Amino acid sequence: MKKNTEKDTKIALLLSGGVDSAVALHVLCEQGNKPDCFYIRIASQEDADLDCTAEEDIEMATALCQKYGVSLEIIDCHKEYWEQVTKYTMEKVKVGLTPNPDVMCNRLIKFGAFDEKKGHEYDIISTGHYATTEVDEEGNKWLCTSPDPVKDQTDFLCQLYPWQLKKAIFPIGHMKKEEVREIAEREHLINAKRKDSQGICFLGKINYNDYVKKYLGENPGLVIDIETGKKLGTHKGLWFHTIGQRHGLGFGGGPWFAVKKNIKKNILFVSKGYNPKEAYKQEFKIHGMNWLTVPVDAKEICFKIRHTSDYLKAEMRDNGDGSFTLVSEQPVHGVAPGQFCVIYDTNHHRCYGSAEITV
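The structure corresponding to this sequence follows.
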């Protein structure tokens, strides 16, 4: 983002307590901007165990704001998070789908509930995501990938509404992670050496399975070797397992991979090898396409179905009923209904949007 020359432009920056949003604050201030900073709290006192880093986050955010002479306000989005993101997640996993709460958190909370509560007062909402934007000759704003292929987070922003993308900026999106760390250490930022969070968005160190178990409990069922039909044991609930999963199955003689679910009979099918036919899809449907900017009539595209640095090439066919069929150049491992398929141009530069897999 270039130095702000419009005095009336108001910028809101979402501070998380992590190094990425901290350096985003530094970059904005160096460019002559004075953003108002906000920390979004999503846990109530009763849910303190689900947001174990909140107090430390707030302490670090407070110190950063004092260093740069900007304001900090804590915005309570507890009710919205549990009613929207948690509801979305649990409804999907209950019927055997594979949701992504982090993706919906960006749409519903960071750029949604926050905008309703405070963001609507601002022209720009800034975050520490690794993504870039560009405006074409027609004035359309596009979400574009980061030069850091490992840290790129366009796939987590793929469900933003067009109006949300129009307000969004990503001050560190053009950097690589090592550059961000170097700036943080050079500027002696309080969280320069803080580790990246590994859990669900906003939920600190909580494990995904613990998050699901809290709301859905357990529902034991059979685990069967798909090739031999042999019963291997029991699972604690299909919602704890993802198609393509290798770790956490707990059976000897492996490695074992989750390859199929029978929702009605509550059976998890696994395979000892990584290459069973059932574990791969070369053609699959997606529905509910969310175009980030404008609908694109693209036949040849790149896509990804999980957070990875790899992009796959495919043909995208419009089925005329609101759905599309993707025909990948190569078989894809672990295609699971409910996952978001994120669509890019053939150079995986512009992110067009995303849709839910409906295999």
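The mean pLDDT is 90.
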